[in-house]
Every structure is written in C-alpha cells, then in structure tokens.
C-alpha cells in the first residue's frame, strides 16, 4: 500500500519507486494490505486501499527487482471459504512465477471495537488451526515458511498452530496499535527466553533467523 501511495503522490511508476527505495537501502518488504485478494471482499472491507490487481503488480514488481516480500491474509470476516482458497491460489501462482515470498502469514480478524465484527464470521480456535494447516499443504513446496501471530492468537493457541503446519513464531512488535485497537489483549513484547520456552514446551527446537530465513547462531 505504501509503495502504491508513494507512486501516486510522486507521479512515478511503481517500478521507479521501488528502484529508488532499493538504491537507498531497501532490502525487503512486508506483504501487508493483502487482506483478501478478491475485489468483492475488498470493496466491502477496504474500499480505499489498492485493488487486488494493484497489490499483485506491486508485489510482482518488487520480486522481479530482487526485493523479497512476505505474503499475508486477514481472514475470518465477510469472506467465504471459496474466497480464502482464491487468495491462496493467487499467492501460490505469484510464488511459482517469482519465488519472491519469504513466508505466508495468516492474520485472524480481530472482531472487537469495529462495526465489521458485528455478526460476522469470526475465526475461533479450530478454524485457526485448520487454516494454518491448509496453508501449509496448499502452498508447499513453493512457500516453505508459515508464520503464526502470537499477538493475535495468544501464546497457547500459537503453540497449537506450531503443531498444525506453522514453523515460524511471529516476533515482538514495537508500538503495535492495530491489533490492540481491535481488542487484542495478548501484548506486544515477548522476551527471547519466553519464545524459547514456548517452543521447547512442544518439543520443537528454537532457531533465531534473519528476515530472509537465514539461521543466526
């Protein structure tokens, strides 16, 4: 979204903006503002954001310029299950063409403190486990890293998701306000020792990594 906005405001193409940012030191980008990559849904939940086509073009251009990104989805609101699958298909096809996604990050919709959450489909427990597992099966081997957001799901459910397809535990957020504004109560900061404890409790081996999933010893 930020790249698209910068291009519009500066009278530049998306490619020109990305090249300028890369020359200035940009090495990777978050694949946010994806929400659900179906325009029917976007017209309801984020009509002022870029369209599905525009999001895809920004991401593909970044990948083709050697700028890797993450891929996200915000699920559990007005979308249908078919539209979730359509989103996964879009992400998989991009990855097959560019290989530029470092990970896929499912982000459950936070239903509190907003009108969209009133009476809508909201992810709960089993649905979160199933969707992370489905993402693993659906995207493998093209995307090998599935991240779970402990800030949105909580520590206990995040542990369960690590046993249902996820292999990456989302890190500490600084001054995060989107989830908190929507009613999330799991906090922003978690010490490295707590990450290790949660991972070892489920008999997994913790491994610190770089943005590009290179191990840090």
Structure description:
The chain has 217 residues and is mainly alpha-helical. It has one domain (2-187): TIM Barrel. The protein contains ten helices and four strands; from the N terminus they run H-H-H-H-E-H-E-H-E-H-H-E-H-H. The chain has helices spanning 2-10, 14-23, 39-45, 52-64, 81-98, 126-139, 150-153, 155-162, 178-181, 192-201, and strands spanning 69-75, 101-108, 147-148, 168-169. The strands form two sheets. A two-stranded parallel sheet has the order 1-2. Strands 3-4 form a two-stranded parallel ribbon. Helix 5 links the parallel strand 1 (69-75) and strand 2. Helix 1 crosses helix 2 (14-23). The longest helix is centred in the middle third of the chain and has 18 residues, at 81-98. The model has no long low-confidence stretch (mean pLDDT 90).
Topology:
Layout: H1 2-10, H2 14-23, H3 39-45, H4 52-64, E1 69-75, H5 81-98, E2 101-108, H6 126-139, E3 147-148, H7 150-153, H8 155-162, E4 168-169, H9 178-181, H10 192-201
Parallel strand pairs: 1-2, 3-4
List keywords for this structure.
10 helices; two-stranded parallel ribbon; mainly alpha; TIM Barrel; globular
The CATH class is identified as Alpha Beta
Shape: globular
Structure summary, number of beta strands: 4
What structural class is derived from the secondary structure elements?
mainly alpha
Rg, please?
A: 17 Å
Which residues sit in consecutive blocks of at least 5 with pLDDT less than 50? none
Sequence of secondary-structure elements: HHHHEHEHEHHEHH
Main β-sheet description: 2 strands, parallel
Give the total of domains: 1
User: Largest sheet, order of strands side by side?
Assistant: 1-2
CATH topology title: TIM Barrel
Percent range of helical residues: 40-55%
CATH architectural label: Alpha-Beta Barrel
Overall mean confidence score, pLDDT: 90
The CATH homologous superfamily is named Aldolase class I
Q: How far apart are the termini? A: 34 Å
User: Strand fraction band?
Assistant: 5-15%
């Amino acid at each position: 979204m930020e790249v698209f906005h910068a291009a519009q405001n500066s009278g530049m193409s998306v490619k020109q903006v990305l090249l300028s940012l890369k020359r200035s030191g940009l090495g990777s980008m978050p694949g946010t503002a994806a929400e659900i990559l179906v325009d029917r849904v976007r017209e309801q939940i984020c009509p002022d954001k870029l369209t599905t086509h525009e999001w895809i073009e920004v991401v593909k251009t970044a990948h083709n310029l050697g700028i890797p990104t993450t891929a996200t989805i915000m699920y559990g609101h007005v979308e249908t299950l078919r539209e979730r699958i359509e989103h996964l298909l879009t992400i998989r096809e991009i990855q097959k063409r560019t290989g530029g996604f470092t990970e896929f990050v499912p982000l459950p919709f936070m239903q509190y403190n907003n009108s969209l959450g009133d009476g809508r489909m909201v992810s709960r427990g089993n649905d979160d486990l199933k969707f992370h597992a489905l993402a693993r099966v659906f995207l493998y081997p093209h995307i090998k890293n599935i991240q779970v957001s402990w800030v949105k799901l909580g520590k206990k459910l995040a542990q369960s998701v690590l046993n249902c397809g996820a292999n990456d535990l989302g890190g500490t957020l600084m001054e995060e306000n989107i989830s908190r504004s929507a009613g999330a109560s799991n906090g922003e900061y978690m010490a490295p020792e707590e990450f290790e404890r949660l991972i070892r409790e489920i008999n997994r081996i913790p491994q610190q990594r770089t943005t590009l999933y290179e191990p840090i010893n």
